[in-house]
Amino acid sequence: MTEIGIGIIGGGYMGKVHSVAMNSVGAVFETNLRPRCEMICTTTPEGAAQKARLFGFNRSTHDWRELVADPKVEAIVIASPQDTHRDIALAAIELGKPVMCEKPMGMGLEDVRVMTEAAEKAGVVNMAAFNYIRTPASQLAREIIESGEIGEMTYFRGEHTEDFFADPQQPATWRSHGRSNGNMGDLAPHIVNAALALAGPIRSLVADIETVHKTRPGENGDPVEVTNDDQSQFLCRFESGAMGQLYISRVATGRKMGYIYEVFGTKGSLRFDQEDQNALWLYKGDSARGREGFTKILTGPEHPNYLPFCLGPGHGTGYQDQIIIEAHDFLKAIEGGQSLWPTFRDGLMVSEILEAAWLSQDERRWVSIDEI
Predict the structure, then answer these.
(1) How far, in Å, CA of 371 to CA of 12, rounded?
(2) Class of residue 301 by CB neighbours under 10 A (exposed 0-12, middle 13-18, buried 19+)
(3) What is the reported pTM?
(4) For residue 263, how many other CB atoms are within 10 A of its CB?
């Protein structure tokens, strides 16, 4: 076994789950490359030192530049606010250090494009942190589609729906301002990534984007303008010719983790709901008359990345396990010296589609992705 020093930038929610993943992945997957949690960076020296103690890091800093430059930090996970991603990634790439970056990868398309081109030019291992598509059930869905088991795809419907901003009296926060902090920057990248993973490249789309609650209570109770979006919907055509529809919302009352997709093919169909993330529903078109219907497949040891967590089917995996799978993929990429899906380039494809959606909204027309 070989150790590799990991530096994580960000000590909030995502910083914590990445830290837990790096502390766990070696044992769970019995990897040859074993992470050593070397340094964590947060905004203050005191806070960083506290996170180092809590999350099991050898050292801490409040300056991301110090972390990136440290010779004992050999690979970097960016889990800080998106306005920092570009500078951190470029600094790490310049030093030849592998980078995994949380979504959204940057403040906009230009950030992601620059990061992607720099990583590819330098030949540095890079990964975009899309974790939901890594569940055993969604990996199984990709296998079923790619094998042709449900035939030629005719339609894809996806949604990412939550309700954390459904109450109009929910006070304004950082989520209320800035395009990259809105629904399109926060939730949309995940289901767009799923659409690309399951149905392939998108050729064109038309989008409708809306701010439902245009003001929210400020600190003193006075209304504060909301400057980003609450919900959006796209119609799209995939390169394969299949039709598609996506719906994304942070105001979908009752939905907690509605990462949902349905895939229709000429021989069958699939459906999945992240709120029941250990089940995949499969319909086979060749079933005997009177026996038609969806079959619920419970994930188990036969399915991708399940066995390292549990020997029994139906016991399931959870959110943290998705991040551990992600850490495993990152280590595998580093060990092999070759970036693995989803790379910065895959993240750039997501950003291009979101940019096309904004252009469609602004000009009220269908937009070809080639225009972006």
Answers:
(1) 37
(2) middle
(3) 0.95
(4) 24
Give the DSSP per-residue string, 137-204: HHHHHHHHHHHTTT-SEEEEEEEEE--TT-STTSPP-GGGSSGGGSHHHHTHHHHHHHHHHHH--EEE
Total number of residues shown for the chain: 372
Closest CA to 362 of 172, 160, 184: 184
CA-closest candidate to residue 251, choices 163, 188, 169 = 163
Q: What is the C-alpha to C-alpha distance for residues 285 and 278, in angstroms, rounded to an integer?
A: 23
**Hey, which bits of the chain come out as E strands?**
2-9, 33-41, 59-61, 75-78, 99-102, 126-129, 153-161, 202-210, 215-217, 223-225, 231-238, 243-249, 258-265, 268-273, 279-284, 295-298, 367-368
Rounded distance between C-alpha atoms, residue 75 and residue 330, angstroms: 10
Contact predicate 369/204, CB 8 Å: yes
> In the prediction, which pLDDT does 170 show?
95
- 37-52 pLDDT per residue, tens: 999 999 999 999 999 9
Q: How many CA atoms lie within 13 A of 68 on its CB side?
A: 22
Query: pLDDT digit string (tens) for 115-125?
Result: 999 999 999 99
Domains defined along the chain, listed by start: 2-130 (3.40.50.720), 136-317+349-363 (3.30.360.10)
Cα 276 to Cα 77, 257, 269, 371: the distances in Å are: 28, 9, 18, 38
Q: What is the DSSP letter of 61?
A: E
